[in-house]
Amino acid sequence: MTRAVSPRLAGYAGLAGLGLVAGLAAGRVELVALAAPFALAAVVGWALGRPPRLEATLTVDRERALEGEQVTATLELVALDGADRVDILLELPHALRAKAPNPRAVRLHPNAPLTLELPLRCERWGAFSLGSALVRVRDRFGFHTWEMHVGQRTSLRVYPSVETLRSLLPPLETQVFIGNRVSRTRGDGIEFADVREWAPGDRLRRINWRASARRRELWVNDQHPERNTDVVLFLDTFTDVGSQGRGTLDLTVRAAASVAHRYLQHKDRVGLVSFGGFLSWLLPESGTRQLYRIVDSLLTMDVVLSYAVKGVDVLPPRSLPPKALVLALTPLLDVRSAAALLDLRARGFDLVVIEVSPVPFVEPGTGELADLSYRLWQLSRESLRARYQQAGVPVIEWREDEPFQVPFEEVAAFRRFAKRVRV
Amino acid sequence: MSALAYAGVLAYAIAREPAFAAAIAGIGGIGALLLVFVLMGSEELLPWTLACLGGAYALSLVAHGSAIDPRAPLVALGLFMCGELASWSLQERYARATPRAITAARAVAVAALALAGLVAAALVLSISAVPAGNGLAWTVLGAAAAVAILAVAVRLAQRPT
Fold it and tell me: Under an 8 A CB cutoff, do A10 and B72 touch?
């Protein structure tokens, strides 16, 4: 607790003393009368200087919320001796906006608990720490001020809102586990693939009697089995371009959350690689717990400045399982991540690059030189895209104002018409 | 309102002794300048502001002669209200959403303290009108009171803030 005494209190006492001395020296009783209110105020102020006995509890109605939702922070205050004026400020991160006055002033009666509710709107995703509340107590005349932090810090995780994706990008190859995706291979499944001659070991119920009658020998149906896929979300966190809380990293996190949510709904295994100044990864897993792990990991994602040269070699092999679909979300600004992605492609991964475009966040400068440099920058980006496309990697530009479904559809179209290249 | 109280006391001091109007207005003007700084946020200048105004009034008293000013308690009230209102406005400057009950409670408290101060000042004047038998004893008592209150002031000023 920090205590502050108003300079007025000492000033009043000094004025009272000065008035008395001046009255004595000049023999004027009026000066003594002038000093009387100040002397009285100084005595009263001195008597009021007892520290308040305040107890407080800060709680939040839930620990997790979605972007755009409202949570309520509740502060319970009780002063054993009462307090004439209590100013309360709940320190909030920028992403949370109070829907009620903050700070606010209240009066506490002795031993009477007061409950203050502060509705908070979650403006942006993130992992936040709420509290403690800064409380300033003043006596009735404002001579003494006590400041203290009350209540425990509580955590609040605001998850990014998930965009609905109608269809997902099918991987080129599936894994061996049961899933919802029709495999290109043949085996036991539901989807019809082809008919072939009977072979020893084929089950009776797979015989196609119509085809067998026509050919006068046994023919059986082949099916495509339903398998799952491994999807690795490769996030480039070397750089972030943006302003006022909106930027490429923000878009990357939102897109990654939507994609992870949708793939996990399809019983696929989803992993995460954050490739940037701070390297982190999550091994591919399936299920709701993995979704929470991924989103929690996304919430703490940030750009960490680093000059270290990094390649995919630094990643543990299990974070990039064979035949996995690697979905890279990158602004294509850092050469390290660009080189790492080309390296992944060279290793035979099914790679899709979704370029989270930094262009809308970049203001072209004025003047001939600035215009020239802006155009050169765009040309260099196009050249990088061409390099990826030569390697058979679809590169789709995605902007903030477009739904995330658009790049998926574009990738599907690219795959439909592109030749498969074995590098 | 604080500036109004200040102007009222200064106007009274000047009107009481027009012959010394320039000197009184000069001291009062310095105080008024200090009051502007106080209202801009420098609360530590408040005692100096009040001291200037008190000084201007003391000058008018001394210049006027030995007659007791019966309105001295009202002047004391004006000085006190000037200080209190200036300080209150400073404290409310950055406060938002102050409930009316808190404002009313402080207004009542300040009014009560001002009234008590007025009564005390009036009491001082009334007591001075009573003839005292032993002048030296009163002088010693007054000096002791002055020393005591100065000691309190020094003690308060030394407190950590």
Answer: no
Q: Residue A40's closest CA among B90, B80, B45, B91?
A: B80
Structurally, chain A folds into a number of domains equal to 4
Residue A340 lies in a domain: yes
pTM of the model: 0.67
Look at phi and psi of residue A240 and say left if phi exceeds 0, alpha if psi is from -120 to 50, else beta. beta
For chain B, the domains span 2-130, 134-161
Same domain, A289 and A363: yes
Q: Please report which helix (H) or strand (E) contains residue A128, including its range.
A: strand A126-130
Taking the C-alpha atoms of residue B78 and residue A153, their distance in angstroms, rounded to an integer, is: 48
User: Closest chain A residue to B86 measured between Cα atoms?
Assistant: A8
Alpha carbon of A4: minimum distance to chain B alpha carbons (Å): 4
Shared-domain flag, residues A259 and A395:
yes
Candidates B16, B92, B123, B152, partner chain A, best to mutate (most A CBs within 10 A): B152
For B112-131, the pLDDT digits (tens) are 888 888 888 888 888 777 66
Rounded Cα–Cα distance for residues A86 and B19 (Å): 50
Q: Across the interface, do A8 and B105 touch by the CB < 8 Å criterion?
A: no
Share of chain B above pLDDT 90, in %: 0
- The ipTM of this complex is 0.79
Q: Would you say residue A307 has pLDDT above 70?
A: yes
In a domain, A292, yes or no: yes
* Signed CA dihedral, B109, B115, B116, B118: sign only: positive
pLDDT tens, residue by residue, B41-58: 787 888 888 888 888 888
Q: Are residues A381 and A320 in the same domain?
A: yes
Q: Which of B43, B83, B120 sits opposite A36 (nearest CB)?
A: B120
Interface contact B73-A8, CB threshold 8 A: no
| Residue pLDDT, tens place only, A102-125 | 888 888 888 888 888 889 999 888
A58 and A8 belong to one structural domain: no
Whether B95 sits inside 8 A of A31 (CB atoms) is: no
